């Protein structure tokens, strides 16, 4: 069997051959989890020539941190991430605080703090972890197409330079993002379509440096605080926090997609106009105008609901991709699928589906619901929501911003997907043999 390509096949004496489409957070975490589970033949195919992540921050929730720690990547990320001590939910038009939640209890309760960091740091440390594993091979500048499934998965690899070639493998994992070709092929085989439901929302991703903010004491105070701030308004919000040891203020917005809906792009990411962005937040308070005005013309980038088919209002998209990977590391452990029969591999993947589907779908719905609730316009529903925020100030009741609500956090952060996967494998008769 050739490792570099032409007509690669697996045979019963070779190790189980695993191919992964996509080197996003999901693909990188899958490769690492499977290598740590002692698989020895893992290839990751990525259309881009390198990792090339959009420069932006990301929330690193405890359910993600727990897995990254088991994979040996957490320390590197945590060293430059910022711990969120508190969150403040404010009215965008006035900057009036509606709700305030201290987050210190998260570390004690879930064993890891809630941190915020740079996407490049998360991806970089997963990638570094992968590079330390001889089992993992990366093929960048390689596009996957023509995925077929029987008797074993097979697909075409088209390198940017060179001739297309065919690969056969034992297990194919499609981690190719929201516009996944693998999903389209899989559903077609099942006689279903794979239309993506457009959320109608878009986001501006902005990173301001300390240098840009240093002349404005009010803005500098935001950068120096250990706080995630959300400014809400009708159909829109801005969420922001410091990253990179407080050298960068990361700002992410969410608003109806009026300016970009027609922008053709393979990734949903494109450039935006500063003037349009300022107009979208025109009725927000002067401090926010000063903050957005620091964005240089022409450097605004847009990510719609790009990387994952969930709205980002619970900050769980990548965390869920990493949970997927951790569960696959358990269900596909070499000892469980040692006979490499398609029915055994299928059983392992069914257990994966059983553990992941309901949880991921529930969090996608919860994120959408949180968006609806945070984006209320004037009226009865907003009055009711603001009463709940007011009660919170006297220490009573739930937090309307579900991201900061202790009961919702318990459901999200308290779930140890690896333990659940091990339990399910035992229950379903797929024990790990040495
Ligand atoms: C505004 C915004 C804010 C967010 N904030 C957070 C947050 O704070 N916390 C959090 O946990 N999540 C957050 N998310 C979600 C998170 O970014 C995504 O869920 C996560 O990055 C998805 O990773 P993925 O690996 O599944 O997909 P992707 O990152 O999309 O990776 C897919 C990869 O596959 C490659 N690929 C695609 N097709 C092919 C092909 N045919 N051949 C070869 N390669 C291919 C692509 O080039 C890409 O590299 C946010 C999302 C948005 C939009």
UniProtKB/TrEMBL annotation:
UniProt protein name: FAD/NAD(P)-binding domain-containing protein
The UniProt record lists the keyword Oxidoreductase: yes
Stated family: Belongs to the paxM FAD-dependent monooxygenase family.
GO MF term list: FAD binding; monooxygenase activity
The organism's place on the tree of life at top rank: Eukaryota
Organism annotation: Zopfia rhizophila CBS 207.26
Record-linked Pfam families: FAD_binding_3
SUPFAM superfamilies listed in its UniProt record: FAD-linked reductases, C-terminal domain, FAD/NAD(P)-binding domain
Positions of the FAD-binding domain: 17-366
UniProt entry keywords in alphabetical sequence: FAD, Flavoprotein, Monooxygenase, Oxidoreductase
Keyword Lipoprotein: no
């Amino acid at each position: 069997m050739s490792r570099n390509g032409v007509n690669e096949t697996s045979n019963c004496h070779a190790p189980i051959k695993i191919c992964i489409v996509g080197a996003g957070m999901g693909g990188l975490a899958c490769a690492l989890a499977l290598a740590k589970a002692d698989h020895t033949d893992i290839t990751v195919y990525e259309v881009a020539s390198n990792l090339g992540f959009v420069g932006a921050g990301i929330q690193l929730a405890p359910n993600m941190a727990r897995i990254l720690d088991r994979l040996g990547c957490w320390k590197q990320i945590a060293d430059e991430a910022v711990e969120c001590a508190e969150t403040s939910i404010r009215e965008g038009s006035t900057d009036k605080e509606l709700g305030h939640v201290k987050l210190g209890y998260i570390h004690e309760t879930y064993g890891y703090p809630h941190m915020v960091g740079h996407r490049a740091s998360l991806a970089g440390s997963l990638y570094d972890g992968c590079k330390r594993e001889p089992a993992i091979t990366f093929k960048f500048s390689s596009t996957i197409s023509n995925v077929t499934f029987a008797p074993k998965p097979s697909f075409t690899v088209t390198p940017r330079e060179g001739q297309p070639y065919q690969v056969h493998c034992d297990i194919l994992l499609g981690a190719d993002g929201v516009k996944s070709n693998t999903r389209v092929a899989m559903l077609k085989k099942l006689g279903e379509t794979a239309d993506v439901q457009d959320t109608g929302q878009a986001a501006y991703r902005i990173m301001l440096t300390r240098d840009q903010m240093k002349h404005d004491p009010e803005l500098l105070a935001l950068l120096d605080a250990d706080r995630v701030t959300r400014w809400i308004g009708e159909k829109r919000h801005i969420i922001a926090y410091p990253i990179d040891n407080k050298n960068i203020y990361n700002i992410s917005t969410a608003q109806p997609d009026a300016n970009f809906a027609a922008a053709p792009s393979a990734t949903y990411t494109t450039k935006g106009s500063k003037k349009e962005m300022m107009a979208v937040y025109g009725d927000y308070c002067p401090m926010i105008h000063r903050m957005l005005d620091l964005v240089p013309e022409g450097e605004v980038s847009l990510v719609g609901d790009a990387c994952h088919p969930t709205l980002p209002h619970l900050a769980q998209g990548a965390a869920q991709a990493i949970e997927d990977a951790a569960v696959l590391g358990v269900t596909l452990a070499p000892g469980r699928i040692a006979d490499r029969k398609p029915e055994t591999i299928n059983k392992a993947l069914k257990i994966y589906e059983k553990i992941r589907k309901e949880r991921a779908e529930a969090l996608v719905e919860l994120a959408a619901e949180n968006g609806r609730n945070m984006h209320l316009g004037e009226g009865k529903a907003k009055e009711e929501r603001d009463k709940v925020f007011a009660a919170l100030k006297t220490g009573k009741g739930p937090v309307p911003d579900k991201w900061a609500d202790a009961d919702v956090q318990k459901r999200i952060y308290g779930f140890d997907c690896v333990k659940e996967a091990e339990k399910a494998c035992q229950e379903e008769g797929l024990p790990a043999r040495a």
